[in-house]
Amino acid sequence: MRIDLHCHSTASDGTDTPAGLVRNAAAAGLDVVALTDHDTTRGHAEAIAALPEGLTLVTGAELSCRVDGVSMHMLAYLFDPEEPALLAERELVRDDRVPRARAMVAKLDELGVPVTWEQVERIAAGGSVGRPHVATALVELGVVPTVGDAFTGEWLADGGRAFVEKHETDPFEVIRLVKGAGGVTVFAHPAAAKRGRTVPEPVIAEMAAAGLDGIEVDHMDHDADARARLRGLAGELGLLVTGSSDYHGSRKTVSLGAYTTDPEVYGEITRRATGAFPVPGTGGA
Asked: What is the pTM of this model?
């Protein structure tokens, strides 16, 4: 059983439509795929409508958080998307994305880079706009060779010359809100040091005590040493261990199913969730 619990579509910063994502997941031989766009559930209905027979969809989102000045992402699975408190917080984060992206465009203009808001808006194509769309604009202009090369201090990394902070929720509040909506929380790529500062392990222990369900261990941004350390930490704290591709279509080089989650862990996630349930495919549209 092949299970990939972290994927993005055009509803945020992926390049596959939600329908295309589930079709590609089935073609890649996955049995279960999670749609976890940034701070939005907008792609869920389309993905469900197109879900091929034999593929199960886990609905979710990747929520933007900040603790002690460090940005982090929290994967939330199988929550009730209409639960008022969590919905209100997601809307706060989502509504901050456009002014933040506009401010990054303005900073780039000051740096002599002719990125325009119209260009970024075209790249986002109605999705939840974010740094990867601005990074793609830099690639289009030949400023950097790849999207990843835009995430440096020179450009868009945390603290970089064109970086602009956004509204991010305290992770302890996110854990509380997701639990209140019947969902399950997993700390995404916690040791991805190349993205910037990482959350210290004592803070992860505090999150575990506050109800965090798991940590994403097998991820393209974790080397072997980081994975071993995280597995040990998960064992100490009683956390579930997941593995996922963090697939973004052509915006990243990683393939669907490049990293997967153990079926027993997936089973435990579904047992803990009460806000929503995995959706089995019936053939799609």
From this structure: 0.85
